[in-house]
Amino acid sequence: CCSDINTAVLVENELVCEGTDNGDLPSCVSAFIEKEVGNDIKSLKKLDKLIEQMTESKMQLEEQVLTVSSEIPKRIHSALKNAEESKQFLNQFLEQETHLFSSINSHLLTAQPWMEDLGAMINQIEEIERHLAYLKWISQIEELSDNIQQYLMTNNVPEAASTLVSMAQLDIKLQESSCTHLLGFMRATVKFWHKILKDKLTSDFEEILAQLHWPFVAPPQSQTVGISRPASAPEIYSNLETLFCQLLKLQTSDELFTEPKQLPEKYSLPASPSVILPIQIMLTPLQKRFRYHFRGNRQTNVISKPEWYLAQILLWIGNHTQFLDEKIQPILDKVGSSVNARLEFSRGLMMLVLEKLAADIPCLLYDDSLFCHLVDEVLLFERELHSAHGYPSTFANCMHILSEETCFQRWLTVERKFALQKMDSMLSSEAAWISQYKDITDVDEMKVPDCAETFMTLLLVITDRYKNLPTASRKLQFLELQKDLVDDFRIRLTQVMKEETRASLGFRYCAILNAVNYISTVLADWADNVFFLQLQQAALEVFAENNTLSKLQLGQLASMESSVFDDMINLLERLKHDMLTRQVDHVFREVKDAAKLYKKERWLSLPSQSEQAVMSLSSSACPLLLTLRDRLLQLEQQLCFSLFKVFWQMLVEKLDIYIYQEIILANHFNEGGAAQLHFDMTRNLFPLFSHYCKRPENYFKHVKEACILLNLNVGSALLLRDVLQSTSGQPPATAALNEVGIYKLAQQDVEILLNLRTNWPNTGK
To answer: Coiled-coil stretches, from where to where (predicted)?
Structure first.
């Protein structure tokens, strides 16, 4: 406690001294005494205690000073001593390093001759090991060669074939070696035995096939000729299986020497392995027949008759399918092969077709008639090949040949040319604007003119022709052609429509409108087709790579909000809307002309309902209603249902505003006039449209609500007017309006209509 007190006193003393000028000691003491004693005489009693505290503080400070002054030299001395020792250690290490360095150099000089001798010996050992390995390879090759020779001498062909497989596998392993002579020796040995075995097995296999009357040029029903004797058939098929399996073993070595026939890279054929050896042998007689008949100067080799060789290939595939499925496929399954015998056979024959097409197409490329005929026949062939014989589209096929750049561009040009010619003929036909199904009500809902249906059939046929192209980029080019044709047809329709503008209600004008609507509807349906959705995805990738669309457009394509036909559909919809608007305007002008007398009706002086025995239609309204009825019936017969629905709804919208503004707001009504207007509208005008909808009055909102207001009884009308004047637009006014059936008209319009009434009581106002 004393120590703490002393410290506190010291601190206070230091603070007091710091507060004086320049730390003056007398001033410091004076300040300290002033602080501790002050003016209070009684505080002098503290002096003894203060002196004692100050003495202790002085002693403590002196001890601290002595301690510090004695410790600092010791620390400095210790640090110097440590530094000296470190210096000595460092010198010792440097001396050791120098000694070791000289020792190592001396040792290296001594060992250098030994290293050179040892390196030479290691090189000799490695060379000897390489020679030994080389000799081992030669020995292994010779051993395998001797084994094959022995097996053949004992007529053990299966073992000879298996040994050749081992030798071929060794050949493949050695391909990375730089020993060219060893590689040459190995390849020559394999080739030697492969030729011997292949020739022997091929000869035996062809003999068995001959016994089976292969190839089958006749229909499948007559394929049992030659093997009808039950005693010989099992043995023949057993030998067939044995030889087939042995030839299959030679596949590895055969691929080392036989390069598969490849067409030029420009055709972009998919990579595919060679046809398996036994199937190759089975194909040989058919290949000879094909080349004999469809090459050179033979009468069967006619460039204008591609259907001859295409039909021949399909016939051969069909004739041999049963045999391949029933006799050859089980052999392949038995040895664990994944090869499909029928498809492998078809693939081999397909190469004949591809070679023939690649040779013929350049010769007829610029003869439109021949080229178009070739394309048609190829497409029919492809369809038959895929549908009837299950040939996969991933295999090399005729579409790869047609996709070659020069040929493909020519195909597009010819396709466009013939499509335009077809469009010319369909539009110039006498029946162009007549529906084929006009007499069949159930079928003729769309009232499609013949030219529009023929055009969409043309587009559908084009789609069917190009949908099996191997690449999306080629399909997209055809899609652009289709879009161009749609746009061209739209322009042609527009031109014909302009010629018919003066007769906008005529038969041809309506037929054009039906055509535009039909094409737009079909394109919208196609946009949801899987094929076109896939093309949309492909187009999205192309546009993204080329930066040809904005991020918004790309997003719409990706999210399927838009489709590949959107541009075309939008243009067609705009044309449809313009044509409908022109028709509506035409009918509306006629209706307005017919309504002139009705506008001048004396609504202010008509007799009340009570003064008439029976309410009847205003005579001045008859021309208006007759004109409207006749035009509605005419257009209902000439326009398809969806178009007519839009037409009458557009007409009703204009008619509602016209009657409201030009007839109702332009007149004043007594009780009889309001009742007559209500009768004319609700019992005569509205029912004209009841055939097209259940509640036609809902399409005449202005007229209906105006009739309600004009025919309110006087008390209700007075009450409603008071409510409107007192609330001026507040919710109670809306509730009051809704209560009497007013939902469309604004409060201001209601007040105007109420003021058109003349049957108000005389209130003196």
So the answer is: 44-71
Q: At 75, which amino acid appears?
A: R
3-state secondary structure of 384: helix
What are the φ and ψ backbone dihedral angles of 369, each rounded to 5 degrees?
-65, -50
Reported as a single tens digit per residue, the pLDDT across 532-590 is: 999 988 888 876 666 655 666 666 665 666 788 999 999 999 999 999 999 999 999 99
Which DSSP string do the residues of 105-132 spell out, in sequence order?
Answer: HHHHHHHHHHHHHHHHHHHHHHHHHHHH
The structural domain count of the chain equals 4
752 & 678 share domain: yes
CA distance 645 to 587: 15
Do 560 and 617 share a domain, yes or no?
Answer: no
Contact (CB, 8 A) for 80 and 32: no
SS3 of 547, please?
coil
DSSP at 446:
S
Secondary structure (3-state) at 258: coil
Residue 421: pLDDT above 50? Answer: yes
- Asked if 2 and 57 count as a contact pair (C-beta separation under 8 A), the reply is no
Name the average pLDDT for the chain. Answer: 87
The Cβ of residue 565 has, within 10 Å, a number of other Cβ atoms equal to 22
Question: How far is the C-alpha of 17 from the C-alpha of 27, rounded, in Å?
Answer: 8
Q: What is the pLDDT of residues 428-480, one digit of tens each?
A: 998 899 988 776 655 567 889 999 999 999 999 999 999 999 999 999 999 99
